[in-house]
Automatic annotation (TrEMBL):
InterPro entries to which the protein is assigned, alphabetical: AAA+_ATPase (IPR003593), ABC_transporter-like_ATP-bd (IPR003439), ABC_transporter-like_CS (IPR017871), ABC_transporter_ATP-bind (IPR050166), P-loop_NTPase (IPR027417)
Organism: Romboutsia hominis
Domain ABC transporter: 4-225
Stated name of the protein: Aliphatic sulfonates import ATP-binding protein SsuB 1
SMART domains: AAA
GO MF annotations in UniProt: ATP binding; ATP hydrolysis activity
Keywords, in A-Z order: ATP-binding, Nucleotide-binding, Transport
Length: 237
C-alpha cells in the first residue's frame, strides 16, 4: 500500500468577505503503515488539513495523491456513538452484516479492554471507554488509512496514556497508516513515526523518529533534546 502525498496544497476561507489563507503551500508525504502526527497550536490549521485529506472539504490549490484507492476511517475528538446501540453494534455499525468477522471484532474489543462491556450501552460507559469504542470502530472497518483528530484530548493523564498504548498495540497488528492531530508534544513523541509541525498554515519542520514506539523513553536525552527543539519550533516569531 502506497502512502499519501500532498503537493503545494492551499486552502482559503472567506470570512466577512475577506479571504483568509488557512493552509499555505503544504508539501507532505504521509508514509504507508506509519503514524504521522500533525502537531501545532490551536488555530494553526490541523483540523482543516485532516478534513482536506479525508475529502470532507475541498482544497483551493494543489494536489492530494493516493487517497482515492484507500479505505478511510475517521476518529473525532468526541466519540460520536449511537446511544441506542450496544458496544458491539456501535463497533460494527457501517460494516455490511455479511462482512462482519466476529473473531476479528472480538479481538479488537479485547485489545481496547472492553471485553466485559460487549453488550453495554454508551450511557453505561466512561468517556475513556467511549473513546475506546470509537477507536475499535475505526479499526473494525479494516481501513488502510485512519485520520484521528485529537481523539484523547478530553481524557485525564492516565487514561490518555493507556489509550496511547492501546492505539500502538492495535496499530502494530493492523497494516494501516494513521494521520493523528494533536497539540500535545509528549503525545506526538510517544506515537509519531513522523512529526510534522504546523504553524500558521505552513509546515515549519518535520522529524522522523526511527526508534520503535514501544521502547521510547521520553526522559531519554535524545527525546528531551527533540522536545526542546519542537518547543522552539512552536514559539511564535
Ligand atoms: N468553515 C470555516 N470557515 C471559516 N474559517 C474557518 C473554518 N474552519 C476553520 N476556520 C479557520 O481556520 C483556522 C484553522 O482552523 P482549524 O480548525 O483547522 O485549526 P486547528 O489547528 O485544528 O485548531 P484547534 O487545535 O483549536 O482545533 C482558524 O483560524 C479557523 O477560525
Amino acid at each position: 500500500m502506497d502512502g499519501i502525498k500532498l503537493v503545494n496544497v492551499s486552502k482559503f476561507y472567506t470570512v466577512e468577505k475577506e479571504s483568509m489563507k488557512v493552509l499555505n503551500g503544504i508539501d507532505l508525504n504521509i508514509p504507508a503503515n506509519k503514524i504521522t502526527v500533525i502537531l501545532g497550536r490551536s488555530g494553526c490549521g490541523k483540523t482543516t488539513l485532516l478534513r482536506l485529506v479525508s475529502g470532507l472539504e475541498e482544497f483551493d490549490q494543489g494536489e492530494i495523491l493516493g487517497t482515492n484507492s484507500k479505505r478511510k476511517a475517521y476518529v473525532f475528538q468526541e466519540d460520536r456513538l449511537m446511544p441506542w446501540l450496544d458496544v458491539k453494534k456501535n463497533i460494527t455499525f457501517g460494516i455490511h452484516n455479511k462482512n462482519i468477522d466476529n473473531r476479528k471484532i472480538d479481538r479488537i474489543i479485547e485489545t481496547v479492554g472492553l471485553k466485559k462491556f460487549y453488550s453495554a450501552y454508551p450511557r453505561q460507559l466512561s468517556g475513556g471507554m467511549k473513546q475506546r469504542v470509537s477507536i475499535a470502530r475505526a479499526f473494525a472497518y479494516d481501513p488502510d488509512f485512519i485520520m484521528m483528530d485529537e481523539p484523547f484530548s478530553a481524557l485525564d493523564f492516565f487514561t490518555r496514556e493507556q489509550m496511547q498504548n492501546e492505539l500502538l498495540k492495535i496499530h502494530q497488528t493492523s497494516k494501516c497508516s494513521i494521520l493523528f492531530v494533536t497539540h500535545s508534544i509528549d503525545e506526538a513523541l510517544i506515537l509519531g513515526d513522523k512529526i510534522v509541525i504546523l504553524e500558521k498554515g505552513v509546515i515549519k519542520s518535520q522529524y522522523e523518529i526511527k526508534e520503535k514506539s514501544s521502547t521510547r523513553d521520553l526522559l531519554d536525552d535524545k527525546f528531551v533534546k527533540l522536545k526542546k527543539q519542537i518547543i522552539d519550533d512552536l514559539k511564535v516569531i
